[in-house]
Amino acid sequence: MSAASNGHVVVIGAGVAGLAAAHRVLARGARVTVLEATDRVGGKLLPGEIAGLRVDLGAESMLARRPEAVGLAREAGLGDRLRPPSTATASIWTRDALRPMPKGHVMGVPGTASALSGLLSAEGLARIERDAELPPTEVGDDVAVGEYVAARMGREVVDRLVEPLLGGVYAGDAYRLSLRSAVPQLHQAARTHDTLTAAVLSLQAKAAEAGQTGPVFLGIEGGVGTLPLAVADSVRARGGEILTRTPVSELRRDGTGWRVTAGDRTLHADAVVVAVPAPAASALLRAEAPAAAAELAAVEYASMALITLAYRRAGAALPEGSGFLVPPVDGRTIKAATFASQKWGWVGAEDPDLLVVRTSVGRHHETEILQRDDAELVGVARHDLRAATGLDAEPVATRV
Q1: How would you write the pLDDT of the chain (400 residues) with one tens digit per residue?
Q2: Dihedral sign, CA of 12, 15, 18, 22?
Q3: Is residue 46 helix, strand or coil?
Q4: Within a 10 A sphere around the Cβ of 299, how many other Cβ atoms?
Q5: What does the alpha-carbon distance between residue 200 and residue 383 come to, in Å, rounded to a whole number?
């Protein structure tokens, strides 16, 4: 990047990753051009409205204890709009009931079985205690999350705790997700402790020593979808160029730089940042970086759909808390529900007469549900919400 510090950098993709890259490159003195194939910036972060309320139609929060997204929001002028959830209480819908999410876990891995009654069977609870009796498990450089946790604490912990949490974050399969990548702090602790329980307890102690008592997540008043818009404004204000409806068709080396072909436009760059999904990145890099292209082509993706519903508060009631997760093993269609009006104070305050609920469908290798039309998806969401919470009111508005 040093060679391009005073040169021209082309960023391919105007999702939040591409915009963050453009933001950083501009700070180093380079000239920046961002190329986006669609007609808008933001990628998976999408602001929208339902029943006149501002809501997120994509991701709704960011990790509060990591500096990247929070720092970017502050640098883009959104620091005074960062908001913690109004409630951190959540549930798991399992065994035909909403059950409190246990405290003191690391991505669903418990430090003790004492708070898991009702979530797990008696056999499942007893299996956790066997962790202390087992010989150490060699995790090496990496291991699948589900494989390691099941070996130490049993499959029930994976199926009813780890899987719904990982599925909510990554839409992936716990038995195929990398421990080092998905839960790096647990991977590191597992390498230095003989039991999984000891590893989890060590992380809890470390968090307590560091005074990590604040929220795990933060949102933005007006929606996290406003973040890429603010970053794009900042990029433009500092001289960066953002071109939408400009798909890149070819990326080739050109002497010491790169030639970027986008429609009838050809750009020459000292450096290129490729910030697009893996399949598109693989196609762009195939000619000049075949090994990287092959690795990218092997990356698996899971698709999902988000169904947002608005209800009149007078005719609807929800349980307390921010929402619930659903273990795949329970056979339900939705995988999570967020009570947005209760989770985010600013959503509830915008119209106190409305309740907004977000539900999601689509797990790893689940494709049939995503072939259904919007009306069917709304029906599925309403059916599962009714079964979980008793909410039987007619929504005044829906978005899919």
Answers
A1: 454 567 999 999 999 999 999 999 999 999 999 999 999 999 999 999 999 999 999 999 998 888 899 999 999 999 999 999 999 899 999 999 999 998 888 999 999 888 898 899 999 999 999 999 999 999 999 999 999 999 999 999 999 999 999 888 887 889 999 999 999 999 999 999 999 999 999 999 988 887 766 788 999 999 999 999 999 999 999 999 999 999 999 999 999 999 999 989 999 999 999 999 999 999 999 999 999 999 999 998 888 999 999 999 998 889 999 999 999 999 999 999 999 999 999 999 999 999 999 999 988 878 888 899 999 999 999 999 999 999 999 999 999 9
A2: positive
A3: coil
A4: 11
A5: 37
Domains, in order of start, for the chain? 8-85+221-298 (3.50.50.60), 101-210 (1.10.3110.10), 305-399 (3.90.660.20)
Q: How many CB atoms lie within 10 A of CB 119?
A: 23
**351 Cβ neighbours under 8 A, 6+ residues apart:** 51, 52, 53
Query: ∠ CA 282-285-290 to the nearest 5 degrees?
Result: 90
Torsions phi, psi for 88 (to 5 deg)? -105, 5
- Count of helix runs (H) and strand runs (E) in the chain: 15, 21
**How far from the centroid of its chain's Cα atoms is residue 383's Cα?**
25
Taking the mean position of all CA atoms in its chain, how far away is CA 271? 29
Crossing angle of helices 67-75 and 16-27, in 10° steps, is 70
d(CA 193, CA 373): 49
328 token code pair: 């795949």
Among 168, 124, 128, 166, which Cα is nearest to 145's?
166
Tokens of 252: 């080739």
Q: How far apart are CA 378 and CA 375, in angstroms?
A: 5
